[in-house]
Amino acid sequence: MSTATVEELTEVAAPEPFWSRQRRLGLALVLIGLLAAAVFGSLAPSEDARFTLSEDAEGAALSINGQFGAVLFGLLALAAGGAMLAGLARRRSNVLLSLGILAFVLSFLCWQVAGNFMPLVDTTEGTLQLALPLILGALAGVLGERSGVVNVAIEGQFLMGAFAGALVGTMATSVWVGLISAALGGVIIAAILAVLSIRYLVDQTVVGMVLNLFALGITGFLYERLMQPDAQTYNTPPQMPEWRIPALADIPVVGPVLFQANLLVWVALALVVVIHFGLSRTRWGLRTRAVGEHPTAADTVGIRVRGLRYLNVLLGGVVAGIGGAYFTLVATGNFTKNMTAGAGFIALAALIFGRYTPFGALGAALFFGFAQKLATYLSAIESPVPSQFLNMLPYLATLIAVAGLVGRVRAPAADGVPYIKG
Amino acid sequence: MRGITKRFGDLVANDHIDITVEPGEVHALLGENGAGKSTLMNQLYGLLHPDEGQILVNDEPVVFNSPRDAIAAGIGMVHQHFMLVPVFTVAENIALGAEETRGGPLGWLDRRRSRRDVIDTSTKYGLPVDPDALVEDLPVGAQQRVEIVKALTREVDLLILDEPTAVLTPQETEELLAVMRSLTAMGKSIVFITHKLKEVKAIADRITVVRRGKIVGTASPDTSEDELAALMVGRAVSLEVQKTPAEPGAGVLKIDGLVVDDDRGIRAVDGVDLEVRAGEVLGIAGVQGNGQTELVEAVMGLREVRAGSVRLEGDDLIGLSTKKILRSGVGYVPEDRSHDGVVKEFSVAENLILDMYDSAPYGNAFRIDGGKVGGNAQERIEQFDIRCQSADTLVGTLSGGNQQKVVVAREMSRPLRLFIASQPTRGVDVGSIEFIHKQIVHERDQGTAVLVVSSELDEVVGLADRIAVMYRGRILAIVSPDTPREELGLLMAGITGAPAEGEK
Coiled-coil regions in this chain (chain B) (predicted)? Predict the structure, then answer.
């Protein structure tokens, strides 16, 4: 008998459905590109839009005629969409998509900034600051979900962290004690989540939502009963100092943003790197991923599935609690009711948008941070767009990112599935 | 193991079982599905804890609280459902739980050493595996080698193999038996769990037969197959399917150039042409995962068709809803009984009308006629010998064999033009297998076109009038059931006698 095999046969050709994902996205890009070129272009005054490298209107700047820019970038978005529609560069369709969206944003900016200026340092710094809690929250999510526990309670962990940080920080008059308390506040919520979902197998999404409401209720109550009547004693936490690294801080744009900053900036960025390498290169990470993908397999090689899940959810509580500390110890200087305003949910979106990876979460968080910063900037320059719409911007960006751009993200196989032995 | 007893609620899964494995022997544990073999071995591996009895290793009593203890005592297990993380590489899977690290608080992995360990073990025992391949990309045979290497890197003295041949081609099974022989030659002991008599006779040094949680006898490998089967089932059984030659009529199901993708968007069915004629059984043989599942799902309207046509007596089925396809006279026994075949929380009577609940005589769009449903259930229960306390018993409490009879009874109680059965006897006891096979042949004799998909070669050979061998989404050949086993085995491995069709 000869040994002909069929390994080498080529696949039978099957017609691709014409409206593939790439084409649909391409069409959407063409439409928004057209909209940008026509609407933004016609509305934009024919004045210079200046993007300054320094803090104020003076100094070095990139400038472009607003009307020309709005039309130019609108047409670029249209071209990117057209390329996708024509089926060019299939492999690189994500690059085209990103370019198209970037061009659309720039077209919008040219319209808005025309006759005005946008300070790049301030924008970058604001983006990073606003992204900070999102980065930390999304990392907390990465820790839990990669080991198989869905963490919808990031919002609750933020609130508890923010509250505990403000309260204990004020009483101890130490920002560091406040920071540690914030972490513990996050851990409390994480611990309830862990026990209920791992030990008692309660639906993890439901537990998470209930914990969010619980955190909102208890911090709101204590705020009104304890903090408001005597803010001096309970709600004036010391602020995290800003540290400056000499030399490095003098680099233009990057320097003041990264090297003249508070500790949380460095903690958040370091955690992204640590968790990335931890997950991919260490025993802890290998086991965590195994437990999140196939807990039974992990159990049969002697890994304590539940123990590892507890550990990771609690670690996530620490990280999210620190993220909560941002609100009271860095951003505002005191606690107010429901001050996180859904940031925990945007962090959750960043986690999914970032495909459950630390660097992905970082990128997504920066994207959402930029949307928030843009909203405040636009209302500051008295943009013709109504402020209510501007306030919707971060949430709208979240919706479009998660629903439209990501499509189906492959979550860890056992995410949200409790492990029952036997 | 001495006096091992394990109960799940009222069910006694293991009833005072004594079993001894000597060094260097292959000890076969023979029994039907659900007899309690896997339960017994899961206790030896520390996954379950015996309610009574003792486990002794080298005459020392031991207590295994988790697989970690069992591994430490030199026991390894290859599970029936592989315990491999699909998105990990082979080396990562093998290292998992016993990682080589270079220290550090989180344990920095020493990936070079893990790779070398894998290569060392795989060459030492002659089990070729690629340490860098992703497990999900490997065929099942290779995944099984990974499982065995994983156990062997942990320096086991006793290896438990739970139904290892269920997913293998005949050639792969031969290779596995050879590996088992070389392992015992190195002084390792093997517990071989199976329900396949031929393999037991080929490899075992000693055979213990388990039935309904009890040891019903021990046998030596020269006991005849009929005797072993009788011991296993508790009565004499006929291993052959009794049937007369088929009298095929006109073509009923005609598939042309069918192309279907799997869930990951990878081509699963790659240009299949097939015809099933009235009054014949067409069997599809092939190792699991070669597109059989997707083929059947596409025919049933459960999966999107990329190209090609599916016609039932000339009517195009593509684009029709599954409901319409069923109502046009197609009976369908799905591959995964507990997911797609029955609703476990529903009663037997309800499950028997799952696809007829809204049509006469059982009901209409607004109501269901309880009396008619009950009457139908009584009839079917008798006709199909479904063993249950009453028609109101929940299907989830029945044995696998009886659940499958419920599915078969439901699907055969309508006038059919085409009957499709995927893995009709998977997880079913020998008695029920016999019965279901008879029903399938009976349906054929009524003039229905029958399509049977099974990864059990014996089943396909026994039932089919023609066999289509499927490999990597293609039908490699259509042969008669008298074709020698070796040839079928080679076809299942993708090796055709003549240069493969379509090769240029």
Answer: none
CB contact under 8 A, B66 and A15: no
With cut-offs at 50, 70 and 90, classify the pLDDT of residue A168: very high
Tell whether A287 lies on the interface with B, counting CB pairs under 8 A.
yes
Chain B residues within an 8 Å CB radius of A12 = 257, 259, 270-271, 307
> Using CB atoms, which residue from B85, B106, B257 is nearest to A297?
B85
Task: Check residues B291 and A94 and name the one with the higher pLDDT.
Answer: B291
Domains of chain B: 2-233 (3.40.50.300), 251-338+416-492 (3.40.50.300)
The ipTM is 0.83
Q: How many domains does chain A have?
A: 2
Summarize the confidence of residues A403-412 as an average pLDDT. 70
Asked whether residue B502 carries a pLDDT value surpassing 50, the answer given is no
Torsion of CA A247, A248, A254, A257, to 10 degrees: -90
Q: Do B108 and A421 touch (CB under 8 A)?
A: no
Residue B493 near residue B169, CB atoms below 8 Å: yes
Which chain A residues have a beta carbon less than 8 Å from that of B271?
12
Per residue in A128-145, pLDDT tens?
A: 999 999 999 999 999 999
Instruction: Give the span between the Cα atoms of A354 and A282, in whole angstroms.
Output: 21
Chain B hits for A302, Cβ within 8 Å? 66-68, 71, 97
Question: Chain B partners of A284 at a C-beta cutoff of 8 Å?
Answer: 106-107
CA gap B91, A249 in Å, rounded: 44
Strands B418-422 and B330-333, how do they pair?
parallel
| Distance to chain B for A126, nearest Cα, Å | 34
pLDDT classification of A59: cutoffs 50, 70, 90: low
Q: Please state at what angle helix A305-325 crosses helix A175-194, rounded to 10 degrees.
A: 140
Q: Classify residue A110: in a domain, yes or no.
A: yes
**Does any CB of chain B come closer than 8 Å to the CB of residue A311?**
no
Q: Please answer yes or no on whether B83 and A2 come within 8 Å at the CB atom.
A: no
**Which helix or strand (DSSP H or E) is residue A64 part of?**
strand A61-65
Q: Which residue of B has its CA nearest to A2?
A: B497
A62 plus A203 within the same structural domain:
no
CA distance A302 to chain B (A): 4
pLDDT value at residue B504: 33
Helix (H, G, I), strand (E, B) or coil at B467: strand
Which region, left, alpha or beta, applies to residue A80 given φ > 0 means left and ψ of -120 to 50 means alpha?
Answer: alpha
Mutate to test the interface with B, among A1, A2, A9 (most CBs of B within 10 A): A9
**What's the CATH number where A206 sits?**
1.10.3470
Residues in chain A: 422
Q: Are B470 and B450 in contact (CB under 8 A)?
A: no
The domain of A27 spans: 21-115
Asked which of A95-99, A248-252, B388-392, B498-502 is least confident by mean pLDDT, the reply is B498-502
For residue B35, what pLDDT is reported? Answer: 79
**Model-level pTM?**
0.82
Please answer yes or no on whether B96 and A290 come within 8 Å at the CB atom: yes
Chains A and B form CB pairs within 8 A to the count of 128
C-beta neighbour count of A35 within 10 angstroms: 16
Same domain? For A108 and A183 the reply is: no
- Residue A204 predicted with pLDDT over 90: yes
| B91-94 contacts at long range (C-beta below 8 A, 24 or more positions apart) | B91/B115, B91/B118, B91/B131, B91/B132, B92/A286, B93/A297, B93/B135, B93/B146, B93/B150, B94/B118, B94/B131, B94/B146, B94/B149, B94/B150, B94/B153
Residue B36 pLDDT grade (very low, low, confident, very high; cuts 50, 70, 90): confident
DSSP bridge partners of B160: B77, B191
Pick from B343, B352, B432: nearest CA to B385: B432
Whether residue A255 sits in one domain with residue A164: yes
